[in-house]
Write a structure and sequence with these properties.
17 helices; mainly alpha; globular; single chain; two-stranded antiparallel ribbon
């Protein structure tokens, strides 16, 4: 049985206000109301957790090429920073609550062990909140005292980006020194931050500090890579020694909760706390509405073949001259565990035995179809949001359509595969290329890719630059749909992979054995009986979305977002970023 980690005690008891998360002027609370009672202190902390980590979100990678949707459809401005930004005020509200917690914990009368645990979590949460701001805007005001909601203001100068990284690392070091090293899966405290998560997150912060995003004039040879390597190796070695490991089945990385790969997760439990993963990922006919977003053809092509070679590598064992007509065959096993394609067997609870998911217009359910086949008497209503694929990864297929909103799989914030890939990246940039390649081989071995006669799992990279690209490609596949891709492209300064580019879907057309088009009435009846397989279709590429803005706009100036003009108007000491009409340099210099 899952346990609720934090007591869900309404802050109404503390504030007497109408909204649980509305904290008016926390500095005026009597400390002995909260910080002398561990249950109330944990209730306060629990609300901060809920805001900090969020939950499963099927659209986390929609900003990248992995999923459909044009997130950057219009030019960003300082008055409308759109998808490039995160909310300034919301994050500083969170930071104010954290700072109040740090001050109040220190003056309260809780025993020192309880105080240490609270403080360790609060220091981590402060670094975590600032990390989101810094990777978006560069240096920001690093406030360490609680700001009164009504009488204080954030009209203070921005700290330099380098100072912010130093402060984040200091907060994380404080957290590591106070937190228990590891909270085990059997512990009642599972779901709280522990020292291992803090150590692994510190390594991630330092990877960003060394990255091209923050060091554009010296992206791969700056001195920060040595620091990043030391910390990432330390985190990897420490967690591995404690038993963290890749689990055997990639399909179970989240569905098998609290497994050896999970470094930190948010606890979900129906009916008190659920997420909208399956309800956003599944085809509409098996959900409570249309899928929110779907995988692109670009993402499909990113998966290697079973031998680890790229789909277009002529030296590959499974190379074919017509990839589009056989894209589902002989792929990296992660492909079939991550994506639903036309005519794929899809054993959702409540469907008939041998159920296949179709996407073809005139054949599939109207809530599932995609394409423009002119012979269809019906027009797809999904061409601006679908692609002919659906997300399978982390779906709980044991839920029936009626139960799809009961998805309560624990939300995995960090897993050991990410720790490994972070370490591999830092190792490659510091002349430890063999260590980086060893990590890539472990990732691919677990995936089920064939080792080949040379035992390299299809990896042909040997130089630093080649291995760098191999790591980038592996992250794209291994961590797909987990919310990493856009941030990776930003920190690598690779927006050219998105800028001015379309996204693509695949339409399926039912055909006879001689490849002539099958009458749709015949195809529909065969599909109702799950008798059409992938080979009963031909496939055509379509731009998705098909109407409106179909191209992303992400020029070089977008590596850091502008601070919204309204924030600067209210706080004239805050400088705007230099690419947005201001004087502040968000890079490290």
């Amino acid at each position: 049985m899952k346990k609720i980690t934090f007591y869900i005690i309404s802050i109404l008891l503390l504030a007497g206000c109408s909204k649980v998360l509305d904290y008016p002027n926390l500095s005026r609370y009597e400390p002995d109301l909260v910080w002398n009672d561990p249950n109330l202190a944990n209730a306060y902390l629990g609300n901060i957790y809920d805001r900090a980590f969020g939950n499963w979100n099927i659209g986390l990678d929609a900003q990248s090429e992995q999923l459909t949707g044009i997130s950057f459809s219009v030019p960003i401005t300082t008055t409308n920073p759109g998808a490039l930004s995160i909310d300034w005020g919301t994050n500083y509200t969170q930071i104010r609550l954290i700072n109040q917690g740090i001050i109040s914990t220190n003056i309260g009368t809780l025993n020192q062990d309880v105080k240490n645990r609270l403080l360790g979590q609060l220091y981590f949460l402060r670094a975590y909140a600032y990390f989101g701001l810094v990777k978006t805007y560069g240096g920001v005001p690093y406030i360490k005292i609680p700001q009164d909601r009504y009488t204080d203001s954030l009209n203070v100068p921005r700290n330099s980006t380098r100072e912010c990284f130093d402060f984040m690392v200091a907060d994380l070091d404080s957290a590591i020194g106070l937190l228990p090293r590891r909270i085990t899966a059997s512990s009642a405290d599972w779901g709280r931050i522990d020292g291992n998560f803090a150590q692994a997150f510190k390594a991630k912060v330092l990877l960003y500090k060394a990255s091209p995003q923050f060091n554009p004039s010296n992206p791969w040879n700056n001195d920060f890579w040595a620091e990043a390597y030391t910390q990432n190796k330390k985190a990897y070695d420490s967690l591995k020694a404690q038993g963290y490991a890749l689990i055997g089945d990639y399909a179970q990385i989240a569905l098998s909760e609290r497994n050896a790969e999970v470094v930190f997760s948010v606890t979900n439990l129906f009916p008190n706390k659920v997420a909208a993963w399956d309800n956003g990922a599944r085809p509409g006919s098996l959900s409570r509405g249309p899928a929110s977003t779907t995988p692109t053809w670009e993402m499909v092509k990113a998966f290697p073949m079973k031998d680890g070679k790229k789909y277009n590598d002529v030296s590959g064992k499974y190379y074919t001259t017509d990839t589009l007509q056989a894209y589902w065959l002989n792929r990296d096993p992660r492909f079939e565990k991550s994506i639903v394609w036309n005519a794929k067997l899809y054993p959702v609870a409540g469907t008939t035995s041998g159920y296949r998911q179709y996407t073809s217009v005139g054949v599939a359910d109207a809530l599932d179809n995609y394409g423009i086949n002119p012979k269809s008497s019906t027009t797809s209503q999904n061409n601006n949001r679908y692609s002919g694929f659906f997300v399978l990864k982390n779906s709980n297929l044991s839920l029936t359509q009626a139960q799809v909103q009961q998805y309560d799989v624990d939300y995995v914030v960090m897993r050991f595969a990410e720790v490994m890939l972070n370490y591999a990246e830092a190792a490659n940039e510091t002349a430890h290329t063999d260590d980086a390649l060893a990590i890539l081989k472990q990732i691919r071995q677990r995936a089920g890719i064939e080792p080949g006669n040379d035992g390299n799992y299809g990896i042909t990279a040997t130089t630093r630059e080649q291995v760098r690209q191999a790591i980038m490609d592996e992250r794209n596949v291994e961590l797909c749909f987990e919310g990493h891709r856009f941030n990776d492209l930003r920190r690598w300064r690779l927006f050219q992979l998105l800028h001015g580019k379309n996204k693509t879907g695949v339409e399926a057309i039912a055909v006879n054995a001689d490849k002539t088009e099958m009458p749709l009435t015949t195809a529909r009846q065969l599909a109702l009986n799950n008798q059409l397989t992938e080979n009963n279709f031909v496939y055509r590429l379509q731009v998705t979305p098909q109407t409106g803005v179909t191209v992303n706009t992400l020029p070089e100036t977008y590596y850091f977002a502008p601070i919204q003009q309204g924030v600067i108007a209210a706080a004239n000491k805050i400088e705007q970023n230099k690419d947005w009409g201001g004087t502040f340099d968000p890079t490290i210099h």
